[in-house]
Amino acid sequence: MTNSVGGVTTFDPRAELDDGSMSIYILKNSSIIKMIKNLPAFVLGHLDDVEEVEHLRTNVLEIEQYKNKGKIKTRIDGDESFSLPIKMEVINNAIDIIVPKVKN
Fold first, then answer.
1. What CATH architecture applies to the domain 22-89?
2. Which intervals hold domain YegS/DAGK C-terminal (predicted)?
3. What are the CA-CA distances from residue 67 to residues 28, 62, 70 (Å)?
């Protein structure tokens, strides 16, 4: 829900903290070679240029298992979390964030 993924702060230049939505990126039909080839686009936030990436914005997302092959666990900030299915929803303006003023 921010422009940062894995410390790369240019990952999604359109993301705003207070826009009430999340950006979803789906990597499809990829390979290690294609990922290496597209690394500059990932780092620079030019994912619209990558054929193997589908992008959508939403405020509610439900993820279910396609085939039942045991439990699939999700991760939150790298830590094991809930099993599928899950539902995520952005609750806009639910938390006040205080940030310092930028000095010019």
1. Sandwich (2.60)
2. 4-98
3. 17, 16, 9
